Amino acid sequence: MHTEAVLETAARIMAPYLGENMARASVRAHCQKLGIDGGEVTREKAEALLAKLATGLSVFVGREKGAAIVGEIRQALAGMGAV
Amino acid sequence: MTAASRRVDLVVGLIGVASLAAFLPKLFWRESALYRDFLTDEVLVYAGGIVKLVFLFLSALFALRSVRRLEGGNPARRPWALLGGGLLCFFLGQAILGFHVMVLRQPSPFPSWADAFFVAAYPLLIGALAEFIRAYRAVGLAVGTASEHAVLGFGAAAVLGVVDLMLVRPILASSAPALERYLNAAYPTLDFALLVPILVLMRITWKFQGGRVAFVWTMLLTGGVCLCAGDIAFAYFSTMGKQGLDPLADVLFVLSYLFIARGTMAQYELLTS
Fold this sequence. Notes:
The structure holds 2 protein chains of 2 kinds.
Chain A (H helix, E strand, L loop, with lengths): L2 H16 L1 H14 L9 H37 L4
Chain B lengths: L2 H21 L9 H6 L2 H29 L7 H27 L9 H26 L7 H27 L5 H29 L5 H28 L6 H27 L1
C-alpha cells in the first residue's frame, strides 16, 4: 500500500481526537522517523507505525482506548490490503 | 459529542452567563435597587461561594478520576495527578474561606490558612503543565520541539517578569501589614509563572484544533488564564484600595473554575466514552 494512503487512513481515524492537522502531522512525523518516505509501505513498517500512533494516542485517551483506535486503523488498512 | 456532555455544556454555560449577568453590572451600578434589594452582597457571596466550591470540587474530582483511568507508566498520569492535587489544594483553600464567610458569617479572612493551600497549589499546577508539555513531546506528537518551547517560555517569562515587577512594586510599598503585602505580591508572581507553561500549551493546543483534545485544553487553559487574571486583579484592587472593582475578580474566579471543571470532565469523558 502506498504511504499516502496509509497516512490518509490513519489521519482520518485519529482526527476526531487529535484534530485533522495534528493527526496528519503526527502520522507524517512518525513515518519520517521510521523511514517511510513515499512509495510502498511494508507490513513490518505499517505495524511499527501503528505501535507509535498507539503510544501517542495513549497520553490523551489511555492505553486501552488508544489500542482500540489503532485497531480501527489496522482494520481499515487490512481492508485495503496493507496489513 | 454525547447528549450527556451537551447537557453538561449547557449547565456550565448557563451558570457562566448567569455569573457574568450577576457580577459585572455591579461594577457600574453598585448603588442600584437591583444590588441594594435583590442581589445583595450576602446573596452574591453565597451564590459565588457555592459555585466556586462545587466546581473546584468537580475539577479536582475529575482530574483525579482521570489519573485512576490512566494506566501505570502512562506519561500523562503524573501531570494529571499533579493537576488534581493542585485543584484539591484550591478547593481546600476555598472551603476554608467559605466556612468563614458562609457558616461563621465573618468577612473573608486574609491572610488565613486558606492562603497556605492556595500558595501550595501553584507548584503543583506549574509542575503539572510543564510535565504535560514534556509528555506530549516525548510520545512523538508534532507539538513542536523542546527548543521552540524553551524560546517561547523564556520570552514569555521575560515579558511577564517585567509586568510582574511593575505590578508588585506598589503592592510591596503599600501600608498593608507585612504578611498581607508579601502574599499579595506572591499571588500575581505565581500567576505570571503559571502563565508561562499556559502560553506554551496554548501554542500546542492550537495544533489540535477540531479534535476532542483541543476542547479539553481550551477549557483548561481558558480557566487558567481567568484564574491568573482574577488573582492579579484581586491582589491589585485590594492593595490599592479599589474594592469597588472586586466583582470583576469574583466573576473571573467563577469563570475560571467553570472552565477548569468542564476541561477535567471532558478529559474524563475522553478516557471513558
